[in-house]
Amino acid sequence: MRHLGAQRAAPPRGGAWFGKGAQAPSSARKQRLLDLTSGSSYGAMSDSATAQQIERLVDELAVSSSKVGAAAAAAAAAALDGSWRLVYTTEKSVHSIVRGLPVCFVGQRISIGSSRVTNIIDFGKGEAASSGEGSFGLRASAPLTITGPNRIEYRFDRFKLLLPWRRSGGERGSASKDLAAASEGLAGRQEQAEATRLALPLPTPQAGGWTQGVFVDGEVRVMRNSQGDTLVFVREDV
């Protein structure tokens, strides 16, 4: 979810050492990962010991996922599509925002149909994301390219501050027309709700890179990116 900073490639981490739970099924590892990341304020409150446990679990999930066949990998790539809530990241930029501002939601929308990814940070009232009004929010959006199973590349071309007020009636109707072809589901409804709100364009960060899914299923998405960071998402539109 990196918005700022130069792109730098980082080699994928290997599973050099696995603890006693290395042979546990992926479902058990996934649940353990969710337990460790719960209540961590997106990782900002995780201590070093917990962070190391999380990285080991991600390594184990990466190894188990690497053994799937081509058909399963293609299906997993399609599973990237949708609306996702961030529960953990090692990104220092996100941690600094979470520690300094009243963040109520961090997430990401991926639309394979329109080939775009949008990073989301909402401040204040938690109901704003569904109601389409009530708080400020940041949106950074980029065209995406699928370059392999569970792997996307992107470079941000839109950045805006979402305001807690709706547009006038005429502007709202125009925005609805523009989104007539929007995808169905939660992600599409969120996009339509946001299009009715006032927004201020911001200087677009010259940032991009790639993210690689080391584990993706119908509920959880575990990613590593070109900045060397780890991210754990939970699906919103289930």
TrEMBL record:
Keyword Plastid: yes
Domain of life (superkingdom): Eukaryota
Protein name: Plastid lipid-associated protein/fibrillin conserved domain-containing protein
Compartments it resides in: Plastid
The keyword tRNA processing is assigned to this record: no
Residues of the Plastid lipid-associated protein/fibrillin conserved domain: 30-233
Composition skew (Low complexity), residue ranges: 1-15
Keywords: Plastid
One Pfam family in the UniProt entry: PAP_fibrillin
Record-level GO cellular component terms: plastid
InterPro entries, per the entry: PAP, PAP/fibrillin_dom
Annotated stretches, region: Disordered: 1-24
Biological classification of the source: Eukaryota, Viridiplantae, Chlorophyta, core chlorophytes, Chlorophyceae
